[in-house]
Amino acid sequence: MNNPSVIILDIRSVQEYKEGHIPGSVNLTFTAWLTMQKNLDCQLPPEDELNDTICSIGLQKYENVVIVGKTSTVLNCVNITRVAWTLKYAGIKGLGILNGGFNSWLSKNLPIQTGWQRKEKTRQKCKWDKSVLTTKEHLIKVMDIAAIIDTRLEKFYTGKETDPKTKRKGHIPNAVNLPYSLVFKKDGTFEDKEKLKSIAYKAIGDNKEREVIVLCCNGQYASSWWFVLSEVLGYRKVSIYDGSMEEWCKDEGPFIIVSEKNKN
Fold this sequence. Notes:
The chain is α/β, with parallel strands linked by helices. It folds into two domains: 6-107, 3-Layer(aba) Sandwich (Oxidized Rhodanese, domain 1), CATH 3.40.250; 130-262, Oxidized Rhodanese, domain 1, CATH 3.40.250. The protein is built from nine helices and eleven strands. The strands form three sheets. Strands 7-11-10-8-9 form a five-stranded parallel beta sheet. A four-stranded parallel beta sheet has the order 2-1-5-6, covered by helices on one side. Strands 3-4 form a two-stranded antiparallel sheet.
């Protein structure tokens, strides 16, 4: 907490932050880290806007960033991993997530403070790491060789039910289903590393150099497996297809598969 090379980034709402936060942490809510692009939800902001956001709290000055959020729901949890991915795209190093979030901090009766904290601004330009972002065009090129991980719930992946966001049933050819729900325990902490490692091995194998593309409905929930694979398990070529199934299903082309048992 008192290490000058570490910044604690709290992404909860302004009101929640003011009512109590980890001492020294700075607040930038989750909504500051996303935008709507091409009628798609939860997309990366334009680079100039994202650079301004990062400079507003001087993130580039710190060697390590620890992200803190609520973990009351799975959506709360993936909001945290989504911010981690966004910062990775912006070239921020030393990313960490407080396991269990602010909920865990409170449950342990650790110190909190109220009010508002400010950090000195910077004017440094981000060094973008675009290797963590995949486009539809790239996915089409590599779909026969890359590991494609669909993190939606099984009922949407198989086509048993229609995903309300996409209006179409099924999944991208060759995609393997690893639901985001496998990543977190009920208390909002991450599943045990060995269990996650076993799940990943069955879906991807142990080749840490294989290209892995994770997706969901719009790139938000996919960040859960991106964080585990890239930042925890050490797979070196993991990216998110940010448009995900919302963008993919806007095309009326042939690239969609419904499991035979779920076809109408």
